[in-house]
Amino acid sequence: QVQLVESGGGSVQAGGSLRLSCAASGYTYSRYYMGWFRQAPGKEREGVAVIDSDGTTGYADAEKGRFTIARDNAKNTLYLEMNSLKPEDNAMYYCAADCILWWLLQKYNYWGQGTQVTVSS
After folding, report:
1. Measured at the alpha carbon of residue 92, what is the angle toward residues 75 and 96, in degrees to the nearest 5?
2. Phi and psi, residue 81, nearest 5°
3. What distances in angstroms separate CA 108 from CA 34, 65, 96, 120, one per listed residue?
4. I want to staple 4 with a disulfide (CB 3.0 to 4.6 A). Which of 20, 73, 84, 112 is the partner?
5. Which residues have CB under 8 Å from 103's CB, separation 6+?
6. 3 state SS of 18
């Protein structure tokens, strides 16, 4: 059974940084494509960053240069380093996994429960 558990969310001032983690279990992690998505209050969920099985990454335009996605296959863990955070980054952040490369499309088969990020101005 695939399980994804996010952690690392919290409250931070604008301009600050956070690192989110997603611990994966129940499947061959290194073979799966992983992504980070977020949903702000009253808005649709949107893609943030993705990484394929060999480390190739992709980002939504708003996050390029500020966010970095990475994976540690030895630890079955996905990361999202977020710098220069803005109030508009306020959202619940979710990690997702699938054996199909969906990039930023929300067709991933497996999702975590989310971790809240709050950025104050």
Report:
1. 40
2. -90, 125
3. 9, 24, 6, 30
4. 112
5. 35, 47, 50, 58
6. strand
* Segment 84-118, tens digit of pLDDT: 999 999 999 999 999 988 888 899 999 999 999 99
Residues near 85 by Cβ (< 8 Å), separated by ≥ 6?
A: 12, 14, 15, 16, 17, 18, 66, 117, 119
Confidence of residue 53 (pLDDT cuts 50, 70, 90): confident
Torsion angle, CA of 94/24/110/95, rounded to 10 degrees? 20
Residue 69: name the closest of 53, 51, 87 by CA: 51
